[in-house]
Amino acid sequence: MKMDSVLLMAYVDGELSAEECQEIEKEIAVSPDTAELVAQLRASQLPYAQAFAQQKLPPVPDSLTEAVAAMARAHAQRTATPGANDAAVTRDAFTAPSAPIRSRLRIAPQWLAVAFVAGVVCYGIGTRFLPGFGATPNSSPTATLAAANPEEPGWVAAAAGYQQLYSRETVAQVPVNAELTAQTVDEIQHQDGLNVRIPDLSQAGLTFKRVQRLRFKDKPLVQIVYLPQQGAPIALCVMKEGKPDTTIAERRVESMNVVTWRHADLSYALIGKPEGTDLPALAKRISDNDVQTLFGDAGISMLAAN
């Protein structure tokens, strides 16, 4: 069986037969490259479409819709009456019939307005969430996350904006892969240079779901996602910053509550919805090292041990 990314993605998504899965698992056992690709595909399984579907988008202003419709009507009027020197279009027996020109012109303003408005909305979303979208020649290099609020410290605002897309359904069904998580933490520590451990927050009613290696302005940014017993997911984000230590500080970034602190050149941001978990109290426990560790102690995983 020839291995390619499409086949491996189908394997990761559980769309192959038992025999096909056995063939791929044999290849994974003997091929480090295949095993690494499968691990990367599993790491990208987060259902972003479901999260994005929960995002509330602002309504398109009526003035914009009317302006686009007026532009379309003006264009239709300019092209409706052919000039004396316009080329004539002939039709013979072999030419497929088409809708009358004027009927198409009456339809044009409607779909043209819809297309333009959709483009405006998509552009607004893209410049906020997509990497490097809308960059200027003087802007910094492209990053995985773009700042959502320029008044907030860049990476904190970006992480909070990203977390807004999460709903409970986003990670509720995501299984915890202990082996892959331990590997990811090892890469964070040795490749990204961040001495990050995944705290066990189960005593606070939070279940660990996954850890992701992100980037902001070409610098490593770690996102650790937890699911409370009720409500939206909570994220602990970590980024390396060579700045003095700071105590816990609470702030509001758009619709998210954010608690930040800094210790040993690592900046932390605990991000969640206003309702539910007491984020400041939880942040104090984490900063005081008053929690157990799930992953990160010499490669030992409490989940794997259980």
Q: What secondary-structure arrangement, pairings included, does this model have?
A:
Blueprint: H1 5-12, H2 18-30, H3 32-43, H4 48-53, H5 62-80, H6 101-129, H7 154-163, H8 168-172, H9 178-190, E1 198-200, E2 206-216, E3 219-228, E4 234-240, E5 246-253, E6 256-263, E7 266-272, H10 279-287, E8 292-295, H11 302-305
Antiparallel strand pairs: 1-8, 2-3, 3-4, 4-7, 5-6, 6-7
Helix pairs in contact: 1-3, 2-3, 5-6
Pfam families: zf-HC2
Protein name: Transmembrane transcriptional regulator (Anti-sigma factor RsiW)
InterPro entries: Znf_put (IPR027383)
Describe what this molecule looks like in 3D.
This is Transmembrane transcriptional regulator (Anti-sigma factor RsiW). Keywords: Membrane, Transmembrane. Pfam families: zf-HC2 (PF13490). The chain is α+β, with helices and mostly antiparallel strands and 306 residues long. Among the domains are: 41 residues, no CATH class; 139 residues, Phosphorylase Kinase, domain 1, CATH 3.30.200. Helices cover 42% and strands 19% of the residues. The protein has eleven helices and eight strands. It has a six-stranded antiparallel β-sheet with strand order 2-3-4-7-6-5. A two-stranded antiparallel sheet has the order 1-8. Helix 2 packs across helix 3. The two termini are 36 Å apart. The C terminus is likely disordered.
